[in-house]
Amino acid sequence: MENRQYGHSAPGTSLVAEPPPGRPLRWARIVLVSALVTGAAAGAMLVLLPSERPAEQPPALPRGAGAGVRPPVPAAGPPAQVLTAVVSGVPAALPDLVSLIGREESAVRARPRDARAWAVLGTAYVRQGRLTADAANYPKAERALRTSLEVRGTGNAEALGGMTALANARRDFPAAKRYGEQALKLTPKQWTVYPPLIDAYTGLGDYTAARSTLDKLMGLRTGAAARPAVMARASAVYRDRGWREDAVAQLTDAAAAAGTPAEQAAYLTALGELAWERGDLEDALRHFEGAVRLDPGRREALAGKGRTLAALGRTAQALTAYQAALAGQPDPRNTLELGELYESMGLTRDAQAQYDLLQTRMRQAAAGGVDEELVAGRFEADHGDPGEAVTRLEEEYQRQPGIEVADALGWALHRAGDDQEALTYAVTATDKAKGGGVRSALYAFHRGVIEHELGQDAPARRHLQEALRVNPYFSPLYAPAARAALRDLGEVPEEPLPPA
Known about the structure:
The chain is mostly helical.
């Protein structure tokens, strides 16, 4: 896959390259599916050497930014501040990141053999692509990182770290593992090489390796500036294991110790996601709103705010939040969520407009080298060709068998009429002994529906109840479907309290 997606460049060539051809999108039309929610703090950490600077006194914390969370301590002003963030792998604000990119572009034009400047530029492009949902940054990132490797050679841990982050952003987890392990061999005591490697192992479904790598990371002696990012990574692994309280505790401490508003906003967003996953709407909204106050352009916080407001019945405000999240360069999954909300409201034309936009965004993402087979398979399973979905997702599962893909493949097999085989993958996605142990209402719902079709009423009832117990609001379409299925089984589900 790497050869198909990744280009190659020589030192001193133009920074802006034509995107490489991505995998062709074969689905006939874009349709509604449940969106996958991932913690904001689980994004790729950039693997470059940190540059510590003295901190100033923190500003007052905005109201609603999170109980028990102290104000962040800002580092030196941009671009020094964002350079520190990029090279140490902590979240940065988009305007400062753009400023750094401009500076590094000037640097490599002036010094085309500066391997470190190329590596910083490449990893900054990756970070920009993640923040803006614009995959057009990824071919530019690869050109810069490969140039750095050509200049310095295979011992270039900084560029290898950037390539790990790039592969993770493109959902090419085999490549991320390869680059990450190379970087780890070169700098085993550098904490920043561990988080993106944990991401790669998680994407490949190797949860044992992810946990052991986290143990090694936690055993390193890291400075105070690095500890919030390390705690955020630990939180993501704990969440995947089903350790909710531990995940929340780690993120709460990370947010309290964050060094900049952008970093604190990222961890508050992740806390909001955890609250959403357990159906705690008020707590989720408080964290999302706190994140937006600290970093108004944080898209995942805006989308999370929209999702939560919709569940609270505050639909007009929810639509406003979603539109802010999708302004400029819409993220495919957030676009899907908004379409799903419109669909649940019976606004078919508005939903279709989002699906049309989603189709465009999926093509753009594929052109930037992003593997969108998981989302494409979900589309086909629900409203396209379930057989095509099975073909896509079977191939994806062979390549990188994570929990998300197992769940999607099981659902596609169900939609294609093969419920016996579907159950195998649904069990993998929901059984701690098989997968990572994450508590997902969507996965439990899928398993319950498949069991219901197989006539396994007792486990079906148990898993449908679990879906609604984990998060009664997990989807504006499928949460009602779970209640309807329970009624069909003769079980009267407990309805959530009406919005205040």
